[in-house]
Amino acid sequence: MLGGVMLLSQYSPLHRRYSVAEWQHRIIPAFDLDQFCYYEDDQGRPVAFCNWAFVSIQVRKILLSGSRDLIETDWQSGDFIFIPEMIAPFGHARAVVRDLRQRVFSSKKGQRVCTVRGTIHPDVGTCARKVQWFSI
Fold first, then answer.
1. Has residue 48 got a pLDDT over 70?
2. What positions carry a catalytic annotation?
């Protein structure tokens, strides 16, 4: 699966820029804690990946402020769902969110989930952060 996630990242302008250290920091803990979903098509090709942390309200505020990134002790620090990575370069993001709502987090119906999205500006090569919320 890790190879599939790395392959997906090559089709995402944001994730293609990640260093090995960033991958270890943002992906590996989710595998260790079984806090991820990995999606393949009918031919077994990877199409999407999503992971999550259960953070405290204090950690969520810190992450949303951008003052630091997720650290190992954050991954299970509370009850609030935070999505560090959603990689869906082929247009499967809505299907992933639907699966999260209906299958993965059905017991948390009504909870607001947050993530910080990055958009690469090709003209200048910078990344703009945008906080995004959705309900389970």
1. yes
2. 15
Place of tokens 């993530």: 115
**Whole-angstrom Cα distance, residue 6 to residue 113?**
25
* 59 in Cβ contact with 14 (< 8 Å): no
Amino acid type, 123: D
Q: CA torsion sign, 56 to 59 to 61 to 66?
A: negative
Helix (H, G, I), strand (E, B) or coil at 44: coil
- Report the distance separating Cα 115 and Cα 119, nearest Å: 13
Q: Which alpha helices (H) appear in the chain, and where do they start and end?
A: 2-9, 20-26, 28-33, 57-65, 93-99
Report the alpha-carbon distance of residue 89 to residue 41 in Å, rounded: 13
Q: What is the mean pLDDT of residues 6-10?
A: 87
Domains detected in the chain: 2-135 (3.40.630)
| C-alpha 122 chain-centroid distance | 22
> For residue range 14-39, what is the model confidence (pLDDT) as tens digits?
777 778 888 888 899 999 999 999 99
Q: Which of 66, 67, 83 is nearest to 136 (CA)?
A: 83
